[in-house]
TrEMBL record:
This is S-adenosyl-L-methionine-dependent methyltransferase. GO terms for molecular function: transferase activity. Gene3D superfamilies: Vaccinia Virus protein VP39. It comes from Ramalina farinacea. Transmembrane segments: none annotated.
Length: 243
């Protein structure tokens, strides 16, 4: 069941990859979430970033085209993106290789195909390069996992002691009344996450210093079926630290 669900995600995002973040509404959503991540980076997400310590390592899980990687690039030296969709990883690496102010100065951003939620993840993910991250985050991917609790456990295994697990996703709030069926429905297990759920999954993985911060305003989703006005959704940042 879990493997079928993962395969549905791989196929859906392989088919979508070329069109994933090119429409104006998608770019507006990415811009708003990027701004929120950057504004909260040194306060809510990880206060240690404020000192710009050298050599920090980020795991961007379910990286897609790399919004989280680019948002945190000013603070991070080595970024590894992992995604189940090879075509999303191709786009991630293509974007990472185009020089930007945030990827110069010996910074590296590398995407690879993988599924940490698979009971037998690819052996290449067992190498030390894929452990001891300072931050392991998932942006807009958490609702695509068959088990959010398992995902937090897997991310917690990948950060160093004292490292941070970060989730950026949709709030649960009143979304049930607004949800409009979409062709992506078979790839999601939730339409959002409450603060209570996030505290429970972070705590269940032994993480501490849990925080849940709601982004001001909303983002507009204009997927198929959303109609003229689209769907307004609230976004949260959830974070916790490995003791
Ligand atoms: C909505 S996109 C978000 C992409 C990107 N993080 C962003 O913020 O734009 C969800 C991503 O999750 C990936 N994904 C879904 N299930 C996954 C899994 N089990 N392991 C890794 N990636 C997965 C998909 O391939 C897709 O790239």
């Amino acid at each position: 069941m879990a493997e079928e669900f993962a395969e549905a995600n791989r196929k859906f995002f392989d088919d979508l990859a070329d069109k994933y973040d090119i429409k104006p509404w998608q770019q507006d959503l990415h811009r708003k979430i990027t701004t929120e991540i950057q504004e909260k980076a040194t306060t809510f997400i990880e206060p240690r970033l404020a000192a710009h310590p050298p050599g920090l390592r980020l795991l961007d899980y379910a990286c897609g085209t790399g919004m989280l990687s680019r948002a945190l690039a000013p603070w991070i030296t080595t970024t590894i993106g992992i995604d189940i969709s090879p075509k999303m990883v191709d786009r991630y690496n293509a974007l990472a290789s185009s020089p930007t102010p945030s990827t110069k100065d010996n910074k590296t951003i590398t995407g690879i195909v993988g599924d940490l939620l698979n009971p037998t993840p690819s052996p290449s993910l067992s190498s030390p390069d894929f452990y001891n991250f300072d931050i392991a985050g998932v942006c807009a991917g958490f609702h695509h996992f068959h088990s959010p609790a398992l995902a937090i456990e897997r991310l917690a295994e990948r950060v160093k002691p004292g490292g941070v697990v970060l989730i950026v996703d949709f709030c649960l709030e009143d979304e049930e009344g607004k949800w409009i069926p979409s062709r992506a429905d078979h790839t999601v297990t939730a339409h959002g996450f409450s603060e209570g759920t996030m505290r429970s999954v972070f705590g269940g993985a032994g993480l501490v210093e849990v925080g849940y911060s709601v982004m001001p305003g909303t983002v507009t989703l204009r997927m198929d079926g959303a109609g003229e006005g689209g769907i307004e959704r609230k976004v949260f940042l959830g974070r916790a630290r490995k003791p």
